[in-house]
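Predict structure. Chain length: 447.
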Amino acid sequence: MRKVLIIDDEEKLRTLLARIISLEGFEVLQADDCKGAWKKLDQSEVDVILCDVKLPDGNGVELSKKIKDKFPLLEIILLTAYGNIPDGVQAMKNGAFDYITKGDDNNKIIPLLYRAMEKVDLGKKVQQLEKQLSDKHSFDKIIGKSKPIQKAIELARKVAATDTTVLLTGETGTGKEVFAQAIHQESKRNRNNFVAINCAAFSKELLESEMFGHKAGAFTGANKDRKGLFEEANNGTIFLDEIGEMPLELQAKLLRVLETNEFIRVGESKPTKINVRIIAATHRDLQKEIELGHFREDLFYRIAVFQIELPPLRERVIDIEDLANYFLKSFLFKANKKVTSISKEYIEALKQHQWNGNIRELKNIIERSVILSDDELVIESLPLDLQILTTHARNDKTLSAFNLASAEKIHIQKVLNYTNGNKTKTADLLNIALTTLYRKIAEYGLE
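Prediction complete.
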């Protein structure tokens, strides 16, 4: 039941209001001064307060500010025996929902109370959604107990509280956007927008328009002014994914944003000021890209103020089982399945895989297996290459752990998986002749 607190030293009026409000189905609490009001607020979760302006031990206008500072979702309606414009203005500035005159406005109290309750309900829903969003994107939701991922989380937590530009590096599919969202969520900018853009997904012209916006008539099809993503992210965070793919001309414009906190829309000459935190990500080695002339060295040093390397999945094998179980739960409802477990053999097969696609590849494999399974994820629901690798591993269990042929067989299969069956590339990586590789494949029955 929603609660209303009446603060008034006039007992008869307080009792009358309490009776009227309780008939509307609200629980009513009463206090005759500021001290009593604070006691009630400490004991109960109040939704709306009806408060007299003049109290024995204080002023209702001042009290409303103190209450709103401590309980921001609570709404306050101030009551006064004499209408006073300056007091009314100050009351609204202090966060009061409304300011009405006793007697003259008694018929307004119940409708006003309902409107105040609607605002309280809306505030609680927003708070709940913000909490859900915060929980979803917090560092606590990043799965992994391995040392490499825990080290990355520790670094990200430290930089999150600052406004420092961050560069996330690592192979494709290692969760760079997940880290970027967590950094934003645990920063002081978390109440403002997090905006992400993949720099590899657009041509130079479209990417510039997406990032900085454009003026009507700037190019064919630009029928009206449009905000860019930097402007949408103002006072928040912008995530520039695959920044290594950004054309050199745009790199120069991005450098200007980093140096001056302003940009120019396409087709305009007047700069627009912004306050944005930049988190960038790439799977490329930007130092090599600089040597090749594909990336600006001055931009690199501006975005790489704080660099975090995200480990590939093959370096955090102990996390695979937890990740698999997480993805299993997330896909059950989507696939309308009742799969309750994952077999040990299935997990062992996952642990033997190379994971060139990292977490993204694991997620796709689990989704496929959920679709194909009824009550448990088993080896037969895995892609064929993982099944073959597992079969070889089973056969090799009869051999000594020190058997050289067994180790060689497993290693060749892993490299074949890594190259997607490209035998020329496999032979190069193994540093053996192509004819030798074909002989080994036939000898070990790898085809």
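Summary: The chain has four domains: 3-132, 143-311, 313-398, 400-447.
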